[in-house]
Design a protein that fits this description.
Layout: H1 6-30, E1 40-46, E2 68-75, H2 79-109, H3 117-133, H4 138-198, H5 205-221, E3 225-229, E4 232-237, E5 240-244, E6 247-248, H6 254-262, H7 269-298, E7 300-305, E8 315-317, E9 320-322, E10 333-338, H8 339-344, E11 366-368, E12 380-382, H9 384-388, E13 399-400, E14 407-408, H10 414-420, E15 427-428, E16 435-436, H11 438-478, H12 482-516
Antiparallel strand pairs: 1-2, 3-4, 4-5, 5-6, 7-10, 8-9, 11-12, 13-14, 15-16
Helix pairs in contact: 1-12, 2-4, 2-5, 2-7, 2-11, 3-4, 3-10, 4-5, 4-7, 5-7, 7-11
Length: 522
């Protein structure tokens, strides 16, 4: 038999439950715009009925219910969508960095344009052509010198920009490692707090939201996998543990992430994109620019020296040493020389004779600024002797007489013409052995960069679309819909009002029973 106050207790349970539902609805509405918030719902269930099955069960028909109660407030979240989101977010982080880096490389190359390396090279070759028209002109020689300096300055500047970009990526890896360490520490702390709260029987919904949001942010930085254990999340980067329950990995820095990249544990995210961009893209184009500069200066080229040319004393070509009277070529001679430097050393300058009375031969045109090291885009410079005295530029391949009365044939432009035609000559790459013109080497590099940048942009756009799609699906499950919450609010409000009215009704019945019965005849 139910007690006299059974219905009062039923109404009380309903009031408590609907109040919890209204409070939760208010909490959802308040956090509709909170990043990482997951909507919550009150899990209601019918409370245990009045009488259970047993030998002492009363004979009153039916199993009288006792109302409603709630046993938990839960988040509405789908782990599968979380996993999908984090995987796509990792890809997006990597491709975004790669795309940004390639865009910066395109700005450094600055091609096609009227101010890039190609234009400076054209001006350099053209100045040699102008010199061939007036080989004795100091003005023409000075223009050759200035265009050579412009070329070396352009290569030096580009090399410096590439070096700075590499250094920026390295510093960004360090910055991201500090951010990652902070997130890892936070997850370990949250694991401990969540475990304590849920050990008391409650769901730590808001703390779980904070933890999931941090994992989402980590997934943009590095690839992660998450395992939910009794001690909270275990977070791994490939085979490398970042968080194990209450214990975070310490010492996360640039070297740590570089080692993870080398071991293939780091396979995605912004840090992956940074290291890949630095070690692949920037390093590759730096090496190509270094090769371009070295090939221009010292790469093998085949040139034909016209009949009548007089080679400098002691010149060795094709294994033959030219000295004395055999210095004068009796027919056209096709030879292989070491780039522009080697060709320049076959000609004669307008400087004074050497100690033996021979005309002064050309010096290496380009040198390394670090005193004789390998020529690179970063150190290529015009020979100081030429920079200080344009007359040290060799333009002629003809002399008359013999030492000590040897004299330069004034107005001869043979070497200057050969120099201007180097624009069309094939050079053998110092580093790869491939053969092409300098313009072709540079065009190949620019073309490669354009294709890589286009592919990175395409992949970034695809990843952005996938992340957006998964996030939309996730929000459809976990996001707060104000329309839905307002509907719930009205529903819970009416339920609360009805429960209150139910309690008032039974209060009146009890009042009649207690205060108005047994008073007949008084």
């Amino acid at each position: 038999m139910p007690s006299t106050f059974h219905s009062i207790e039923t109404a009380k349970r309903s009031l408590f439950t609907q109040t919890a539902a209204l409070n939760t609805t208010g909490h959802n509405i308040a956090n509709a715009n909170t990043e990482g918030y997951t909507r919550q719902t009150v899990k209601m269930r019918a409370s245990i009925p009045m009488e259970a099955y047993g030998i002492n069960r009363s004979n009153v028909p039916g199993q009288l219910g006792t109302g409603v109660e709630f046993d938990a407030i839960e988040r509405i979240r789908e782990k599968f969508l979380d996993s999908q989101y984090r995987g796509e977010n990792t890809e997006l982080g990597s491709w975004t960095i790669r795309s940004n880096t390639l865009d910066k490389l395109q700005q450094i190359m600055n091609e096609p344009s009227d101010t890039g390396i190609r234009k400076v090279l054209d001006n350099f070759y053209k100045s040699w052509s102008d010199l061939s028209k007036d080989p004795e002109s100091v003005t023409a020689r000075t223009i050759v010198k200035e265009n050579a300096l412009a070329l070396t300055d352009a290569m030096n500047h580009m090399s410096k920009q590439l070096s700075n970009l590499s250094a920026d990526l390295t510093s960004n890896v360090e910055a991201k490692s500090s951010e990652l360490q902070s997130y890892v520490n936070s997850i370990a702390d949250l694991n401990q707090s969540i475990t304590k709260i849920e050990g008391l029987g409650d769901n730590a919904n808001d703390l779980r939201d904070q933890r999931d949001l941090i994992v989402d942010k980590i997934s943009k930085i590095v690839n992660v996998t998450v395992t939910d254990t009794d001690q909270g999340y275990n977070v791994n980067m490939g085979g490398q543990a970042l968080v194990a329950g209450f214990t975070p990995t310490t010492g996360i820095n640039g070297a740590f992430l570089q080692a993870a990249f080398a071991s293939n544990d780091l396979q995605g995210g912004e840090v992956h994109g940074m290291i890949l961009s630095r070690d692949q893209f920037v390093a590759d184009y730096t090496a190509q620019m270094d090769n371009l500069a070295n090939t221009l200066a010292t790469g093998n080229i085949s040139v034909t020296l016209p009949k009548g040319s007089v080679l400098p004393e002691g010149t060795v070509l094709n294994g033959v040493t030219y000295t004395g009277t055999n210095r004068t070529l009796q027919s056209d001679l096709t030879v292989t020389v070491k780039g522009l430097n080697g060709l320049h050393q076959l000609g004669y300058t307008q400087e004074d004779k050497d100690a033996n009375g021979n005309m002064v031969a050309g010096k290496p045109f380009f040198v390394a600024s670090n005193n004789g090291g390998t020529i690179t885009a970063g150190n290529i410079t015009l020979n100081t002797a030429i920079a200080d005295n344009p007359n040290a530029i060799a333009a002629s391949l003809r002399v008359t007489g013999t030492a000590p009365t040897e004299e330069l044939v004034k107005g001869n432009n043979t070497l200057a013409s050969l120099m201007s035609n180097l624009k069309l000559n094939n050079f053998t790459s110092v580093s790869t052995g491939n053969t092409a013109t300098i313009d072709s080497f540079f065009s190949s590099m620019v073309g490669q960069l354009g294709i890589e940048a286009q592919e990175a942009t395409r992949q970034t756009q695809n990843s952005t679309a996938l992340v957006s799609q998964v996030e939309t699906m996730r929000q459809s499950v976990s996001g707060v819909s104000l329309d839905e919450e307002m509907s719930n609010m009205i529903k819970f409000q009416h339920a609360y009002s009805a429960a209150a009215r139910f309690m008032t009704t039974f209060d009146q019945l009890l009042d009649k029973l207690i205060n108005s019965t047994g008073v007949v005849g008084r």
